[in-house]
Amino acid sequence: MTRRGCFITLEGLDGAGKSTHLDWMAGWLRRAGLDLLCTREPGGTPLGESLRELVLHQSMDLRTETLLMFAARNEHWRTVIRPALDQGRWVLCDRYTDASFAYQGGGRELGPEPIRILEDWVQQGQGPDCTFLFDVPLAVARQRLQQGRESADRFEREGAAFFERTRQAYHARVAADPARFHVIDAQRGIADIRATLEEALQALLRAHHDRTPATRTGPTA
Ligand code: TYD
User: Fold this and answer.
1) Is residue 56 part of a domain?
2) How far is ligand 1, taken at its centre, from the CA of residue 95, in Å?
3) Among 7, 4, 35, which Cα is nearest to 213's?
4) Does 121 map to a domain?
5) What is the domain extent for residue 72?
6) How far are the Cα atoms of 29, 76, 149, 207 from residue 91, in angstroms, in the given order?
């Protein structure tokens, strides 16, 4: 019998500074003694990384883009994330299904329904235990993006209206499930943000030890 691990995701607009905090969070969790898997979407498997290349750089229909995100996600969830959680490992993932709601559903204006259907089909009611949304005003994200990037991908090249819709769709996700989200004001200084993250991670660790019932290891149906 092993306790199921905790599934944590990081989200935010391109340029919100999410990547800066991911390594630090991974280090903190490992120092806390956890066996941590650090991964990303789209990607996280050999097939997923190939799909990432396509979806970030090749022009395609919106439905194709959405299906490829979920093809990569299905492979990632079934062959990497779920087995790791079942073995008691913690998983820290750079973006997950909230990004599909935000970017394809919101930014690209597909709406949430098709994403919900694919989410149900692939994840069957299972998903992140906790999500950190790194939130910055659009102007700040765009400024950081311009400073940090040499060659932009298909998403980073989008205009202000796209990112405004994406940000709004993220906020709709938070409103629909506030208990799962920590919204981080990513405009603050790094030390300040780290203090907030540390507090949240400590609470997560305590809650996990107090509440998670032991589950049987092995594949889930
Ligand atoms: P990102 O984490 O920004 O990678 P990097 O920091 O290396 O640029 O992710 C790549 C892009 O993929 C990002 O612009 C958002 C997009 N994306 C979607 O549109 N839908 C999704 O479901 C996922 C997971 C990502």
Assistant:
1) yes
2) 7
3) 4
4) yes
5) 7-210
6) 10, 12, 27, 16
Pocket test for ligand 1, best of 14, 62, 119, 136 (most atoms within 8 A of CB): 14
Total domain count, the chain: 1
Tell me the β-bridge partners of 135. Answer: 185
Query: What percentage of the chain has pLDDT greater than the value 70?
Result: 93
Compute, in angstroms, the gap from residue 117 CA to the centroid of ligand 1.
Answer: 20
Averaged pLDDT, 57-83: 98
Return the CATH number at 69.
3.40.50.300
Q: Assess whether pLDDT exceeds 60 at residue 221.
A: no
What is the rounded CA–CA span in Å between residue 114 and residue 60?
A: 17
Q: Could you read off the pLDDT of 20-65 as tens digits, one per residue?
A: 899 999 999 999 999 999 999 999 999 999 999 999 999 999 999 9
Whether 220 maps to a domain, the answer reads no
Q: Is residue 215 part of a domain?
A: no
Q: What is the pLDDT of residue 143?
A: 86
